[in-house]
Amino acid sequence: MEWITRLMEALGSPGAGLAVALENVFPPVPSEVILPLAGFTAGQGKISLIAAILWTTAGSVVGALVLYGLGSWLGLERMRRIADKLPFATVSDVDKADEWFDKHGTKAVFVGRMVPVVRSLISIPAGVSGMPIAKFTLYTAAGSLVWNTALILAGYALGENYELVDRYLGWVSTAVLAALAIAVVWFAVSRVKARRS
Q1: Model's pTM, two decimal places?
Q2: Which own/partner pairs from 131-140 qualify as long-range (CB within 8 Å, at least 24 positions apart)?
Q3: Residue 160 has what pLDDT?
Q4: C-alpha to C-alpha distance for 185 and 170, rounded to whole angstroms
Q5: Which parts pass through the membrane (predicted)?
């Protein structure tokens, strides 16, 4: 966490934005730590509160666009070929996921920006499904603005106790990871049973 503090001390609010952009692509430190710290730093008068919100939102969008680009590069046809070679996936799984994203993608991107873990991952299926980049950027920016503002204001209000945000949201991250792990195991087990029958 010390590197984030140094980044903000050296670059100000753009440093917070850079930290968030990096966290989106390579999450060594979650935004649940970065954003409240930015709020605390703003509370000390070292950076502007509004600038911190705007720069971190810009950082969220930039990081999300990198992963969107990865998904776009993978593309639907490549994902179908990959699924065809995997033991527990089928081409129809990819098609169903793509159909679901066509119907619910905008809501998934917007809400997903406010869910730990999902926040980064949601950008990849958006790119795979070919969601228009302007729409993706708009909903990513909107969802990120809500999330970033809430956590920065929490850090601003809590002052030196800003780490409480990460402590409580850490449980949410753990729950999301557990739910994803259970879903993967359930999917694999159901596929094995289906093949045996």
Answers
A1: 0.79
A2: 131/68, 131/101, 131/105, 131/106, 133/65, 133/68, 135/106, 136/64, 136/65, 136/68, 136/109, 137/61, 137/65, 139/106, 139/109, 139/110, 139/113, 140/60, 140/61, 140/64, 140/65, 140/109, 140/110, 140/113
A3: 76
A4: 23
A5: 47-71, 136-156, 168-189
